[in-house]
Amino acid sequence: MQAPPCSSMDERRGAATAGALILELKPVHPPPLDGRAGCETWSVQFSPDGGCFAWSLGHGIVKLLPWPLQDVERHRSAETEDAPRSRERTLQCGHSVWSLAFGPVTSKFASRTNVKGVPPELLLATGLNNGNIKIWEVATGKQLFHLTGHQGVVRDLAFTPNGSLTLVSGSRDKTLRIWDLSKPGNNFHVLTGHTSWVYSCSISPDSSMIASVCRGDTRVYLWSLRSYTFMKNLQGFDMFPVSCDFSPDGALLAIAAFATRWEIDVFDPHSGERLIVLRDCLFCDHDIMNTPIRAVCFSTEGLHLAFVTEDRAIRIWKLGQDNPAMETDLLRFSNGLCCTFHPHGGVVATGTRDGHVKFWRTPRLVPSLSHLSRVALRCHISTHQVMALPIPNKIKDFLTYRNLQGCHEARCSMHQLPLD
């Protein structure tokens, strides 16, 4: 593990901040010289309390590390066993790990579900390339569940944020499965209707809705998590979605897509209206088919989007702004595959094709009181309920994020417009 000195720059007013690299994790096994698959970091995750970091470093291995990572060396040298939760652990999954999810998860705005028999321990679900899902107890490293049924790679996993042990999995077998780990036999429901491999799935903060995207399909699928039925498609794309994420209040749904270039569309999932579009810098001369967008995720306060493309480790964009808030230099030897914010903010982690993980310091933002009020309200009422309120239209536009509506070109720091 390396800890290079942090650096930042702001060469001119309005320019993006260069990504400040905090730490870097390198895998034990170097990538094969012949380019074979198996060493990729397809997923990285922080635990809900921010005290643990999970890293899929290829070769069927998952590392559980205490956060902050400065404590790793201290825990390695510790001779006592009185703090098993804080020690580093290695999980041998036996097959390539494509997806990770910690659970149970409780959104700060969601009502916790009281489920009898649900263990209080923190769990980690691992989705494998053979279609199986293994679930581990983080404190002990013990395997608790082995879920079978998918007929293809388990590409994405997510626990419902209501505190229950309900797990949603998306697979290359074109299905979503909803597993109830609190019941004997791990009852599950299968959602069918995708036209191809499921790339990504996300659960709304109130645990009422699942969004999913699949390979080669320009539609976004919305499913009811209460009735286990299909709700509707979000359409109008010219590109193929590859990643999706709900905002912390559930009022927005970000979709990352690419074809000849990449694009991020931010929808209102309740009305189906596309509110914000962020497009690739048109002045960058690169072969986008070799540098597609891979993942997108909302920050913990809901005002920033982080996304990775295979030519840069990370970009961070503030909603409604033209220029990126942060971007890293062009990559030379490694391509970004995944990203996730620390639940307390300030740090974003990215995983790469050669098995590395990099941690970046993110722009600090103190949300306004009006935004915090909007988030608290939107966690409990839909867009349709907001529009029915007897309040001025300007306030309705703010509460539904329509005040940020527009199309933006994500010009990189080299091609931003000169200041007047």
From TrEMBL:
Coiled coil: none
PROSITE patterns: SOCS, WD_REPEATS_1, WD_REPEATS_2, WD_REPEATS_REGION
Gene3D superfamilies xrefs: SOCS box, YVTN repeat-like/Quinoprotein amine dehydrogenase
Domain SOCS box as annotated: residue spans: 366-405
InterPro entries hit by this protein: SOCS_box (IPR001496), SOCS_box-like_dom_sf (IPR036036), WD40/YVTN_repeat-like_dom_sf (IPR015943), WD40_PAC1 (IPR020472), WD40_repeat_CS (IPR019775), WD40_repeat_dom_sf (IPR036322), WD40_rpt (IPR001680), WSB_SOCS-box_domain (IPR051983)
Pathway in which the depicted protein is active: Protein modification; protein ubiquitination
WD repeats (start-end): 147-182, 191-233, 341-360
Top-level division of the source organism's lineage: Eukaryota
Keywords: Repeat, Ubl conjugation pathway, WD repeat
GO biological process per UniProt: intracellular signal transduction; protein polyubiquitination
Protein name: WD repeat and SOCS box containing 2
